Here is the input.
Amino acid sequence: MRSGRERLALGLGLLAALWVVVYWAWPVEREPAITFADEPAGASEPIVQAPVPAPVQPPPVATRPPPERTPATAFPERPRVGVVAPEFTTHTVRAGESFQTIAKKAYGDAALWSVVARANPRVDPRKLRVGQELRLPVDPNNVQGLTVGDPKAVDAPPPTRAAQAVEYIVQPGDTLGAIAKTYYNSSALWQVILDANRSLLSRPQDLRPGMKLLIPPDPRGATGSGR
Here is the structure.
């Protein structure tokens, strides 16, 4: 018969074998391995990131200097041109008056009768009536408006006497002598009117009603003018 020690050793061996069998046969939930968020599972070596290359700066663009501004050409300021409106006074015709006597009284020069004629183009100088009203320019050089601001006009001295011819429409019964008597107070100056209208008249007999004649200023000037 076996001794007590042998029976104890045999029982312990059977118990150890039973524990081993139960341990390996019984399913056991094993805890998952601990991993890090920045490391992939199962990685044995740390991931080495490649160095990021420094950004390449583009070459500087060559800029051209701004063009120099040339000063604007200074143009001379144009003179301002204006017109001075004429001023008139009213003259009432008296008995025995003519354009010459009116000009003599108003301007001190009978040769300025053409100023009176230009200011009253619809008045027939041969048919002045007592009480008839005429316009007389205050300035004999400003009958239809005087232009100012023109350098040429400023440099030129203003005329002291009327140098422009006036227009006269021939009336029935007119003669060159009668027209000269009206404008020059002398019928002997009819040749002056004829010479100024050679494009219309070759002789005094060619005068016809309705013709427009140019009456030049009195060739004698102030002397001999007026009545």
